[in-house]
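Below is how a single chain appears once it has passed through the pipeline. First comes the sequence as given, then the structure the pipeline wrote out for it. We keep one example in the README because the format questions we get most often are answered faster by looking than by reading.
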Amino acid sequence: MSTNTALLIIDVQTGLVDGTKPVHKMPELLANINTLIAQARSTKTPIIYIQDNDVDEIGSPGWQIHEAIAPKEGDLVIRKPETDAFYGTSLQEDLIARDIKHLVVSGCKTEYCIDATCRRATNLGYNVTLVGDAHSTTDNEILAAEQIIAYHNHLLESVWSDEHGEAVGVYVKRTGEIEF
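Resulting structure:
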């Protein structure tokens, strides 16, 4: 991948990932995100953590980014008030300042924050690679988490925009296919 890429890790917070209802395949999720982090660090690709203010009480253990993938000095951590990582945050300005054009997206929860952020990113002119085995969710009343993840991997690949002079879209790859 080019130097204008950033790794975006959305809402991998203790209370969401391994709280009372852990996300689907939590150990694999954390391992895959750690693989992405290691690759990004080895190529000096920016790593941006998004932290949802609504996961738990701000500052509480459940609100913290999961210790297995915790940020290091130099990583950017952005707190967000809503589902979309761009809404009410400095994410867009930070990406522009770093000349980022492509986002590699991982995190939680698939049908909420991952979906909303991928869609918004393409509308803003970013190409997105959704890491299909590095985002997760929990079962709901209608679908099992595995179905939600598979459905969104399929659905989001049809999201694109050509409003910014060139076509951009969401592309789904597995962790082993990602190169920074």
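The CA atoms of residues 71 and 120 lie 24 Å apart.

See the next section for the split statistics.
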